[in-house]
Amino acid sequence: MDTVNILSGGAAQGLVRGLAEAFKAQTGFAIDGEFSAVGAMADKLRAGAPADLVILTQALVAKLAEEKLVTLSSIADVGRVETALAVRRRDPRVTVKTDADLREVLRAADAIFVPDIKASTAGRHVAKVLDQLGIAYEVASRLKIFSDGATAMGELAASTAQRPIGCTQATEIIATDGITLSGSLPPGCELVTMYTAGVTTRASHPAEAAALVALLAGAAQRELRQRVGFAG
Q1: Pairing state between β 30-36 and 76-88
Q2: Which of 81, 84, 91, 117 is buried deepest, with most CB atoms within 10 A?
Q3: d(Cα 38, Cα 60) in Å, to the nearest integer?
Q4: What is the mean pLDDT of residues 102-122?
Q5: pLDDT tier at 1, thresholds 50, 70, 90
């Protein structure tokens, strides 16, 4: 079967999965690809990895267009995703309304599950927030860092720690069995990221890739985007 290949941030994995059948019915193509930290995905494209389209942060897609790796006219915003807290389904939810609340919640956790703190959007933000809260050194030994948010959340679900917590993008939390979206980060610590799709300049199937971009960003899929964790 013909396939459209994607390089995508993990934030979009649930949405792509939810659109796969509709896309196949529309085009006859399946969807395949890799979902991981956005920086790593951009570097794969730069290194020549085959891909028909990318779904990355708005700023990163714009940069790839400047580098002539994404077709400027194909770019469309998919939606915003907030970085949020997660707990195992069997654990009580935590609520943080202030940075002091967040500081205490993180200090109380015996394991903090996060994505790559250098290559992922949420992971870089977590590192920044820990510095901002003045607890980066204190909790460093409790950080459980994985390649992407989906992997980190899967490890949180399986964790045997007594008081674990996770922090990544809401879409990755919602898509993971065994954990619960516990709440937003408080004012001053929040992050909302726009994700954007675009057809690559080396696409093997540019027409089908453009059709998938339209499906991802289209008004008809607004309800699905909201269900998997995207805001408008």
Answers
A1: unpaired
A2: 81
A3: 8
A4: 95
A5: low
- Match 């995207």 to its residue by tokens: 230
Q: Is 192 in a helix, a strand, or coil?
A: strand
Kindly report the pTM of this predicted structure: 0.87
CB proximity list for 180: less than 8 A, separation 6 or greater: 86, 87, 88, 89, 93, 173
Residues 141 and 100: their CA atoms lie apart, in Å, by 21
List phi, psi (to 5°) of 175: -80, -5
Angle at 102 between CA 171 and CA 122, to 5 degrees: 35
| CA–CA distance, 232 with 82 (Å, rounded to integer) | 11
Residue 9 sits at φ, ψ, to 5 deg, of -65, 150
Give the per-residue SS3 of 136-161: HHHHHHHEEEECCHHHHHHHHHHCCC
Q: What's the Cα-to-Cα distance from 28 to each of 133, 182, 208, rounded to whole Å? A: 50, 39, 9
From residue 111, give the alpha-carbon distance in Å to each of 13, 107, 166, 215: 25, 10, 8, 38
Nearest 5°: the CA angle 86, 174, 107 is 5
Provide the pLDDT for residue 92: 94
H-only helix segments in 75-205: 99-108, 121-133, 136-139, 149-158, 170-174
CA atoms within 13 A on the CB side of 21: 1
Helix axes 121-133, 99-108, angle to 10 degrees: 100
pLDDT in tens, 65-111: 999 999 999 999 999 999 999 999 999 999 899 999 999 999 999 99
With left for phi above 0 and alpha for psi between -120 and 50, is residue 208 left, alpha or beta?
alpha
